[in-house]
Amino acid sequence: MFDLIVIGAGPGGYVAAIRAAQLGLKVACVEKSRTLGGTCLNVGCIPSKALLDSSELYHLATHRFSQHGIQVGDVTLDLGKMLARKDGIVKSLTDGVAYLLKKNGIAHYPGSATLLGKGQVQVAGDKPTTLEARAIVLAAGSVSTPLPFMPTDGTQIVTSTEALCFSRVPSHLIVIGGGFIGLEIGSVWARLGAKVTVLEFLPRLLPANDAEVAFALQRSLQKQGLEIHLETKVTGTTKGSIRATVHAEQGGKAIDFQGDKVLVAVGRRPASDGLGLAEVGVQVETKSGRVVVNDHFETSAKGVYAIGDLIRGPMLAHKASEEGIAVAEWIAGKPGHVNYETIPSVIYTHPEVAAVGLTEEQLKEKGVRYKVGKFPFAATGRAKCLDDTEGFVKFLTDADSDRILGMHVIGPRASDMIAEGVLGMEFHATAEDIARTCHGHPTLSEAVGEAARAAWSKALSM
Ligand code: NAI
């Protein structure tokens, strides 16, 4: 008999299991994949960032080194080695999760879990067994949303999983969906020499991001050679021996695109099938497939909780981890806490895009009186030294109280710099608080200080 069974060992599940064990609970964790770490570590965040970093270095070597006075001659790509490096990073991190489970005394059950009711979980696998616990946390994550008229085949029409392992650089990659996955994976292969065409259904990229930032990213990606077609509705595909033809509609007219690889990246849906949810009374939203939970992540079945991509909110690894920590704390009888107002999002394109809080469009819609403070990286010494001056930092603040309502960054290392806005918002900071915080010189973070100063009063170096 366990105190807690966690189903799924992704960044939601393994974090919940570790936190519960730290709080003294007897914990089991069931995972059906061969390796721990879920989508994020195995086929998502980590391998994609490994390839984004490698391909950025390749791009720098082929396009930018000469501006620094570095002549490198012929730069060649060893794709096999690049992919092996990525696999090595994944292995070290997934092994790290296995180590952490062991270190915290968590029983790892490999196999596929199904709820049986009354705190029981059946584990099918090499060693079938039935486990029992006082509480169960569902952390089964999500799977790629298929296009019903375009089944993936793993070779020509693929999901992100296969697109992270192409054994040669595609000559023309067609990306369906201009969201996080499409733009990141499209960037990798474009930097390595592929022609990349992005087909997006909506009139703009990244509808959840601040429009000014999304347009700046679009312009930048187009400058890098990505072809972006907005308001383009994909309707079908015809597979050929070497190329596939993607059929679409643009402004009421039919248009075809031909490529040797087609990536379908039109979103993800909760992996709520096959867990036996209906049988034990766990309510699932019909349209979205999301598990319904209360404020403490408990489902409609008592003692069964759900977190991460299975439930409402953005499908982000760090959001799942926050929920994993909070649910473990609640189950252990302690206070838990997730602040949904301060969950950052990051897109690892070049330039990177990062955001926290509300966008200008959302503030207008809510009728909030706000101020904008912006500062371009081109006006900072460090960005000039890096030869990476594209982009800006943008603060949105309450016009009356000066409180930060949103921070949006497009530019070098936006992924790391957003942390200052997250911390500021967590502590209800004003723009003046950030402006009066000393930022090291010369750093990229000076743009954060200056943008805050611009929102509160006036930037010094503009
Ligand atoms: P997404 O929801 O970010 O983007 C999908 C895009 O496809 C949308 O813009 C949508 O309008 C478009 N689309 C849908 N149907 C279409 C059609 N028939 N034709 C053309 N366009 C169509 O989903 P994505 O990129 O697949 O990512 C899935 C999830 O994974 C997201 O929730 C994302 O937050 C998460 N993720 C996060 C990353 C990060 O934090 N850096 C990286 C990758 C994924």
Explain this structure:
It is built from 13 helices and 22 strands. The strands form five sheets. Strands 1, 2, 3, 4, 5, 6 and 17 form a seven-stranded mixed β-sheet that branches. It has helices spanning 13-22, 38-43, 45-64, 79-103, 160-163, 180-191, 211-223, 317-331, 360-366, 381-386, 414-426, 431-435, 446-456; strands at residues 2-7, 27-31, 107-110, 112-117, 120-124, 129-138, 142-144, 157-158, 172-176, 195-199, 227-229, 232-239, 244-250, 253-259, 261-264, 268-270, 304-306, 345-347, 352-357, 370-376, 392-398, 404-411. The N and C termini lie far apart (65 Å). Helix 1 (13-22) packs parallel to helix 8 (317-331). Strand 10, helix 7 (211-223) and strand 11 form a beta-alpha-beta unit. Helices cover 32% and strands 25% of the residues. The protein folds into three domains: 2-144 and 269-341, FAD/NAD(P)-binding domain (3-Layer(bba) Sandwich); 157-266, FAD/NAD(P)-binding domain (3-Layer(bba) Sandwich); 351-456, FAD/NAD-linked reductase, C-terminal dimerisation domain (Enolase-like, domain 1), CATH 3.30.390.30. The protein has 462 residues and is α/β, with parallel strands linked by helices. 1,4-dihydronicotinamide adenine dinucleotide binds next to helix 6, strand 12 and strand 18. Residues 147, 176-182, 184, 199-202, 233-234, 265-268, 314-316, 346-348 line the site of 1,4-dihydronicotinamide adenine dinucleotide.
